[in-house]
Amino acid sequence: MKEERRRLLAKVAYLHYVQGKSQTLISKEMNIYRTTVCRMLAKAKEEGIVRIEIADYDADLFALEEYVRQQYGLEKLDLVPNQVEDTPADTLTNVSKTAAEVVRHTVKDGDKIGLSWGATLSSVIDELDPKAMKDVLVYPLAGGPSHINAKYHVNTLIYRLARIFHGNSAFINAMVIQEDKQLTKGIIQSKYFESILASWDQLDLALVGIGGEPNSREESQWRDLLTDADYAQLKQEEAVGEVCCRFFDQAGHPVYKGLQDRTIGISLEQLGRVPKTIAVATGKYKAKAILAALKAGVINYLVTDKETMLAVLALDEDIDLNNVLL
């Protein structure tokens, strides 16, 4: 009887997986309920009669994605595999290609898109293929860099992204960090800034990078705007990273109010209310920043590489890596 049962499970599995017949058709041919067919297919996998292999892809990576997605309440997570021979530039390119596909399939007609800037997002836009959309609007999420780093200026990236989606764009004519809060206040309250300011509460989608600890000016595209006193204060308040040029601590809380008051950019609170915020980041040195952003709920889509994600998990005291499927 047991062998007959296994033979029946095997037959149902053969009809479904090999011959490609639907569960409804199998139920009619074998005169059994469709729900029974469904249970039999599940049992066939459970007992090892059916073993599914995904050729050329790492199934464990998909399992890790699902674990992390659920752990941090993400709507979507894409992990890019690392190869031994990969350089940081290779990893950035691979992550950018995946992020470009995520963006391309996420943007909808009529979307208001907020865009940050920097080398990572520039790389993502490099990989984006044109897609004819209707009524897409692209807005800046932060002011621009100094003239030294004009290559990754937010206006350049906004213009490029709007062209890719056949949309329109708004530009920002101010550096992200001002000398004092009065200058910042004056810009934000100015007539030309009204539409940008209003857009931050109306966004459908945001595309951002994640910056690591403020240890070195040389590793950043914009931190030459910070003073020695700024760096000292960020260190004292234990800043671990930034999103949209807004620094935060390991809990994801904003730090250094004096700098926040001089920053022209969407707040972390506002960013957390955007329905879809896609963050793209790579590099173990950003692990603390990524973890903080995840725990604070600032982002709900993440694209990164496996090694970076494992570095993030290793920092999380609530996770036992031995229980994570690698």
TrEMBL record:
Transmembrane residue ranges: none
Domain of life of the organism encoding this protein: Bacteria
Domain (Sugar-binding) ranges: 61-314
MF terms in GO: carbohydrate binding; DNA binding
Pfam families on file: Sugar-bind (PF04198)
Sorted UniProt keywords: DNA-binding, Transcription, Transcription regulation
Family, per entry: Belongs to the SorC transcriptional regulatory family.
Annotated PANTHER family: TRANSCRIPTIONAL REGULATOR LSRR, TRANSCRIPTIONAL REGULATOR-RELATED
Protein name: Sugar-binding transcriptional regulator
